[in-house]
Amino acid sequence: MDWLSRLFEMMPVRGRLDLRCSYGAPWRIEQGPGEANEIPYHAVLAGAAMLEDPAGGRPLLLKVGDILLLPGNPRHVMHDGSGAVPRKARNRASLNFTISETPGAGERLDLLCGHFAIAPPHDRLLRSYLPPILVVNAGAHAGQRDAAGQLAGLVALMRGETADDQLGGRAMLNALSTAMFALVLRLASEAGGAPRGLLALAGHPRLAPAVAALFGAPARAWTLPELARLCNMSRATLARQFQEKLGRSPSDLLTDIRMTLAANQLRASSISTGAIGEAVGYQSEAAFQRAFKNHMGVTPAQWRRTQDPSGQDIFATPAPTKPAEAS
Q1: pLDDT at site 313
Q2: What is the mean predicted confidence (pLDDT) over 140-152?
Q3: Contact residues for 42 (Cβ-Cβ < 8 A; gap 6+)
Q4: Reduced to 3 DSSP states, what percent helix, strand and coil does the chain have, rounded to the nearest 5?
Q5: Domains (range + CATH), the chain
Q6: Predicted TM-score (pTM) of this structure
């Protein structure tokens, strides 16, 4: 199993389309922050939008084919860039999603808005490995067989599903949204100049053997020399490349993987703490207890007690639709 598939197996992600916007200028959208475990997304089908940088930097122009992810889950503002007083949006519910509309002249914005939900505590971990703002473009690649072409085809399917209410439409839109997350990360990792984090690490072919090893056999007591040999580089070079690309050491990544697996086991089973610690690579229960508390802030027993005893899937109950706030 490749490392990204392994990551999604460890940290389940579910997508959900919330609404489709059709706006004529002047318009303005204010959204967020969402629930703590959510990452919002926006896909530009037609027109253009200006995203105000939540961190206070220069506005970002979003164009046709752009897909925006906001892993930082901030309150964010998009507008047409005219500076004119925006028109009031009207939201109406369809069977499977919400449509938000404004009148107006000129080129209209056509935008899909949704979010990705990640099971806690993995949302915090995954967010720490992604940039606060991530944009990829698939607009010019429709019909191609690479990641951009696949993403363009997926967005085209979503556009078709939102053209009219169809039988099974909500299930289709949510499934396509979930697949969008994986394709966005795949495309971002293949693009030059990927932002620091897992995407930059994945896009560095010389480090791929070490990443695959850590995800594929996290219980093994990997050493820096072993990982360096897999990558055919020196220990110093491997350590430097991990720090530059990921912002963490190989041992930090290994601990994150182990703690994720342990948290899943504690939630889903009644296996003893010692057995879980051994399964994820710790030689003693005491060492596992220390590592888990340092990483999670609570002991394994405390973590297990806080989990839903029914084992209910946090994604099982559909969240209420969250229309954009447009004024």
Answers
A1: 45
A2: 77
A3: 49, 62, 67, 68, 78, 111, 112, 113
A4: 40, 20, 40
A5: 3-193+318-326 (2.60.120), 200-306 (1.10.10.60)
A6: 0.84
